[in-house]
Write a structure and sequence with these properties.
- The protein has 14 helices and 35 strands.
- It is of the alpha+beta class and 694 residues long.
- Helix content is 21%, strand content 30%.
- The strands form 6 sheets. Strands 4, 5, 6, 7, 8, 9, 11, 12, 14, 15, 18 and 19 form a 12-stranded antiparallel sheet that branches. An 8-stranded parallel β-barrel has the order 20-21-22-25-26-27-28-29. Strands 30-31-32-35-33-34 form a 6-stranded antiparallel sheet.
Length: 694
């Protein structure tokens, strides 16, 4: 007996089918089907033919492929009994539940030892599909691998795009051709990682940023993941995501995957990006003050590092406020005897040498300037040279002979005593001071992958959120080492990269926009000479790159010339004037004819206004700029277009370009089908264009 189920939104349809109670498989995923489509016919039409050299029927590419069904590819589950002997279940449908855009399928194995549940939910507004799986066992079992529900990949895709990176070089896009066999990526660092962001895009042949069909996936889990993109011998393709393999150290009776976020787009990569951006901002992140504007951020790290002096910090705060900062964040160095990164981690008490009257004098001064106050913690870490390690060496995760990372070890977050200690120390600081923001850091990988570590960190975060619901939290892990939708269920901002180099940031921000909206993506104006790259960049370029996201400063404002102060104040003022509509805007990647130009369009929800940021990261191959085509505008509408920073034009830009002499009014059709001709510029410069319905 064939049973089928479907989930729909205005863009896409997902159809699952099952024969004789076996595990369901996705038999259709793509543009929305007619409501009257016969799903049983679809299931039968989906079935592949067989010929010589094959089995008499093709094993199902199910939502959890079973080794016991002669499946030729990677199985969706590898599990053992408590004594270590392999367990090979064959699942049969127990029940299905469908309600309010949610489908839950429940199966039991032939011995009725394991219960498997797969949950699918589709959001009719963001177009996001959430899929997750869980197992319940009658006896403790050892889990090697459990995939979230498996999705097929399209046959007409020639390549897949996933993401690599490094410290200060996150979100590097890799393009890998499809071929028989698997693309296998596994992050075993115990955190999301700079190196293996858990995302995958499968563009259908001919897709670009702004057009064509594409499929995209993200795994919302912060403890390391495994991804399998496999082409079977018969040509079918499967996508698997789950926790990194072998991360459950103990036999257990319950296991659960994180959520796979999956989306189909008929509007190129931008359709995927808009779905991820809106779903994260509107469905996952919970802001303590959702109606308040995103504040301009100041972080003192690259101004003072560990050298905290109250009078100097007060002076820096005054200068930051004059530039337009609205939040002051005190970074590492305020606690214990923390004079460098070799000591005092986990000694979360205010250093009386640096702050003889505590933090209150600094906080009061910051507030008198009209700014709120934030503070840095790295709760999950410990230095051997610390009071807490000397008292509790058993709290450290891993062996005594492990390799250190930044002179520190990780605390064992699975221990209730560790969670209670951290909560007590952090809640003491938060309850005794007027603090509205935490920068939560995580500056080393774990000595071994451990899912219990991630669950323990989640527990601490959840408890602090309940106790201090008005405190906003930023996820930082040496910059972009812990960015995923799992951590974003508990935080409101990410520190995208420790690099404040605007050239590097231009690319990192551009690629990360496939998953992250402006509202949660921190971007700061760094020092004149970048501390991580040594590159010296003009203040105009640094300021406008920061203005693409949640803007802030992280330089020593005492280094600024009068001209730099003027420029930074003006750009910050522009950002404040536009931040409310940019908060809910879609970030659209533009297909630039010039590979040296990273261009994106922030389009207001409803389409009433937009801003285009066209950053030039390197010298162009051609002498004159080529037109830059915009996207998602109304062809028949007229738009008033203005170059915001026309005063930045070089003396070598000698032509009578309309943008330099504008504003002017043109149709959406012209902007999309021909595009804007930009003025000439040097490398490491940004053009900013503002458009409004005329």
């Amino acid at each position: 007996m064939i049973r089928c189920w479907r989930l729909d939104d205005g863009r896409q349809t997902l159809v699952l089918g099952s024969d004789r109670g076996r595990l369901a498989e996705v038999v259709y995923w793509g543009p929305r089907l007619p409501d009257e489509e016969d799903l049983t016919t679809l299931y039968e039409a989906y079935t592949l033919d067989v010929t010589g050299g094959m089995l008499d029927a093709n094993p199902e590419l199910s939502i959890c492929p079973e080794a016991t069904r002669s499946f030729p590819g990677q199985p969706g589950l590898i599990i053992r009994h408590g004594d270590g002997t392999p367990f090979l279940p064959k699942f049969c449908l127990e029940r299905s539940d469908v309600a309010d855009n949610v489908l839950i399928l429940t199966y039991m194995d032939q011995d009725r030892v394991l219960t498997y549940r797969a949950r699918f939910a589709i959001d009719p507004d963001t177009h996001m599909i959430e899929a997750s799986a869980e197992l319940d066992a009658l006896e403790p079992m050892h889990l090697h691998w459990l995939s979230a529900p498996v999705f097929p990949a399209p046959q007409l895709a020639d390549e897949m795009i996933d993401f690599a990176g490094r410290w200060c070089g996150e979100f590097q896009m890799n393009r890998t051709p499809w071929s028989p066999g698997i693309r296998y990526r596994e992050n075993r660092t115990g955190r999301t990682g700079h190196e293996h962001f858990p995302g995958l895009i499968v563009p259908v042949r001919g897709a670009s940023n702004a057009s064509g069909h594409a499929y995209a996936f993200h795994y919302g889990w912060s403890g390391g993941h495994r991804m399998v993109a496999e082409e079977l011998p018969d040509g079918r393709r499967q996508i698997q995501f789950g926790h990194a393999a072998r991360v459950e150290g103990e036999a257990q009776k319950h296991f659960a995957t994180g959520k796979v976020y999956a989306v189909f787009s008929d509007d190129g990569l931008n359709g995927c990006a808009v779905a991820f951006q809106r779903h994260l901002r509107d469905r996952i992140v919970t802001f303590p003050r959702p109606d308040a504007p995103r504040p301009v951020h100041y972080n003192c790290w690259e101004a003072v590092y560990f050298d905290h002096n109250l009078d100097e910090l007060k002076d820096i705060a005054e200068r930051a406020a004059k530039l337009g900062a609205e939040r002051f964040v005190l970074d590492d160095g305020w606690f214990g005897n923390r004079d460098d990164d070799t000591q005092a981690l986990s000694d979360w008490e205010v250093d009386p040498r640096k702050y003889p009257q505590g933090l209150t004098p600094l906080i009061d001064h910051v507030k008198s300037l009209g700014m709120t106050f934030g503070i840095w913690f790295e709760p999950e870490m410990i230095n051997q040279n610390s009071d807490i390690f000397r008292a509790h060496p058993d709290w450290a995760l891993g062996g005594e002979d492990q390799i250190m990372g930044r002179q520190q070890m990780a605390l064992n977050m699975a221990l209730p005593a560790v969670q209670s200690f951290l909560f007590a120390r952090m809640s003491d600081i938060l309850s005794r001071h007027d603090i509205e923001y935490i920068k939560w850091d995580h500056n080393r990988v774990l000595p071994m992958p451990d899912a219990a570590q991630t669950r323990g960190s989640y527990t601490l975060l959840d408890r602090l959120r309940r106790e201090f619901p008005d405190v906003e939290i930023e996820s930082c892990a040496s910059g972009g080492g812990r960015i995923d939708f799992g951590i974003m269920e508990r935080t409101q901002r990410v520190w995208l990269s420790d690099s404040n180099d605007a050239v590097e940031r231009l690319r990192i921000q551009h690629n990360s926009s496939i998953f992250l909206p402006m509202a949660v993506t921190g971007s700061h104006v760094g020092p004149r000479t970048c501390h991580t790259s040594g590159r010296t960049l003009d203040i105009r370029f640094r300021a406008w790159v920061a203005a693409q996201r949640h803007m802030g400063f992280e330089m020593d404002p005492r280094e600024l010339t009068d001209d730099e102060k003027h420029v930074l104040t003006e750009v910050t003022g522009w950002w404040k004037q536009n931040r409310d509509w940019m908060y809910g805007a879609d970030i659209l990647r533009l297909d630039s004819a010039d590979p040296a130009v990273f261009a994106e369009q922030h389009l207001e929800e409803g389409g009433g206004q937009f801003a285009v940021f066209a950053g030039k990261a390197a010298t162009s191959d051609q002498i004159a700029p080529r037109p830059l085509r915009l996207t998602r505008l109304s062809p028949d509408a007229k738009y008033r277009v203005e170059l915001v920073n026309r005063a930045d034009a070089s003396h070598l830009s000698r032509g009578q370009n309309a943008l330099k002499t504008g504003p002017f009014v043109v149709s959406g059709a012209y902007l999309m089908y021909h595009g804007l001709t930009l003025p000439w510029s040097f490398p490491e410069r940004m053009w900013v264009i503002k458009g409004d319905l005329a």
